[in-house]
Amino acid sequence: MELVDAPHSKCGTFGFVGSSPTAPTALMQTYNRFPIRLTKGEGVWVWDDNGKKYLDAVAGIATCTLGHSDKQLRKALTRQLKKIQHLSNLYEIEEQESLASWLVSNSCCESVFFCNSGAEANEAAIKLARKYGHKKRNIESPIILCAKQSFHGRTLAALSATGQPKYQEGFEPLVDGFKFFSFNDSDSFLELHKSLESNGPKIAAVLIEPIQGEGGIKPGDKTFFKLVREVCTKNKILLIFDEVQTGMGRTGKLWGYEHLEIEPDAFTIAKGLGGGHPIGALLANNNANVFEFGDHASTFGGNPFACKAALTVAHEIESRGLLKQTIESGKELNKGLLKIVKRYPNDLETVRGIGLMQGLVIKEESILSAKDVTEKAICQGLLVVSAGPKVVRLVPPLVITKGEIRLLISKLIQTFEKLI
Fold first, then answer.
1. 311 found inside a domain
2. Do residues 336 and 276 both lie within one domain?
3. Exposed, middle or buried: residue 53 (CB in 10 Å: 0-12, 13-18, 19+)?
4. Structural domain range at position 286
5. How many domains does the chain have?
6. Local structure of residue 220 (DSSP, 8 states)
7. Same domain, 49 and 127
8. Residues 184-224: pLDDT tens digits?
9. DSSP letters spanning 247-286
10. Distance between CA atoms of 382 and 409, rounded to whole angstroms?
11. Which tens digit of pLDDT belongs to each residue from 46-64?
């Protein structure tokens, strides 16, 4: 099996995929970047500085909802720049009020706090949960339950809530107050709940993804999530969903919780909300919203420019029928990926996911890794991203057409032909 090109060999118009950059840089070396420089994009396509064209099934990691350089987004943001770009939250912001109203009207929540990213949204959720624990359950040291293999962000509290030790190594001591159960495992959840609550209230909230993203594209089980909802309701524990990756139509429904037929007390969003522009939010129902004046704040959160971007994304999702299109596109993508699994049964195991959040699972016994596939796909003019060492994640823009999905599948087949 050929895994990657030999060092210093050529792959298309650029050098060895996965090699470290040799040019001096002022950047901190926190990213192991692919040695290609992308300079422009349109729809689901991007081009590098050598003019090579790539089908982008990464979309800024599930962020560019409308694709690259969307016409309506360009128009809206050009007008906004001519109007006003930034105000602090010392003043009322028209665009922020409009976006909050849209989010509340289209979700199970009644209020919104705006920030700049998914990690910040989860930090806000953690603070909300702790105050709720103090105020509503009279807990001195509130605990938040999280799932193993979860991912909630890189800031310290969000990192502490993440159920993957590999992200936490070197950053100890972590923030206290998080305990972990196995995702989709009712017995594991009930045992942890019982052990903590047997001598009085200790749990403030459950923070969980409806579909685990970085944990390998693992959809939540309806039966499990209904149990969690029942336990939380009965014991006055907040159920908070991390919808940073699943929100804004990524799964074919506006929110991931809609697939599970339950409603959380609060949820966080970011990524696809701004269509490539930094914005995040925490949404809460009236019972969960215990924040008061001065409890939380953000200088940039909900500024006019970011909110105009998100409003445009929201309106375009509605006007273009992108939820329905995402369902149909997701079926087409899933069908194509299953054909690839059938074609390479010794190395590929299955396909997981919903809508345009799909994961191609590599068998544990295969010497092939998601990194191998990601690197070789670049040679075929295709951008994909891993979700753990054995899952290739495909999260293209919601505007991708069926024809482009077929081309995506063709490029992925070419990738595996080079690897296997």
1. yes
2. no
3. exposed
4. 71-319
5. 2
6. P
7. no
8. 999 999 999 999 999 999 999 999 999 999 999 999 999 99
9. TTTTTSSSSGGGGTT---SEEEE-GGGGTSS--EEEEE-T
10. 10
11. 999 999 999 999 999 999 9
CATH number, position 412: 3.90.1150.10
Q: Are 223 and 328 in contact (CB under 8 A)?
A: no
Least Cα distance to 163 among 153, 219, 362, 173 occurs for 153
Say if residue 236's pLDDT is above 70: yes
Task: Measure the CA–CA gap between 344 and 252, rounded to whole angstroms.
Answer: 28
Q: Which of 319, 351, 376 is the last residue of a domain?
A: 319
- Check if the beta carbon of residue 192 is closer than 8 Å to that of residue 228: no
Edge-to-edge, what's the strand order for the sheet holding 391-394? Answer: 348-354, 357-362, 391-394, 385-386
Query: Global pTM?
Result: 0.94
Residues 202 and 350 occupy one common structural domain: no
Same domain, 350 and 254: no
End-of-domain residue from the set 292, 319, 346:
319
| Phi, psi angle pair for 337, to nearest 5° | -65, -40
| 337: enclosing H helix or E strand | helix 322-343
With 70 as the cut, is the pLDDT of residue 229 above it?
yes
Provide the H-helix boundaries in 84-221: 94-105, 118-136, 156-160, 165-168, 186-197
Do 105 and 199 have their domain in common? yes
Sequence-distant (≥ 6) Cβ neighbours of residue 361 within 8 angstroms: 216, 348, 349, 350, 351, 352, 390, 391
Span 98-127, pLDDT tens digits:
999 999 999 999 999 999 999 999 999 999
The SS3 of residue 225 is helix
Q: Which amino acid is at 313?
A: V
Reading the block at residue 151, the tokens are 């991912």
117 and 189 in a common domain: yes
Residue with token string 């105009």: 308
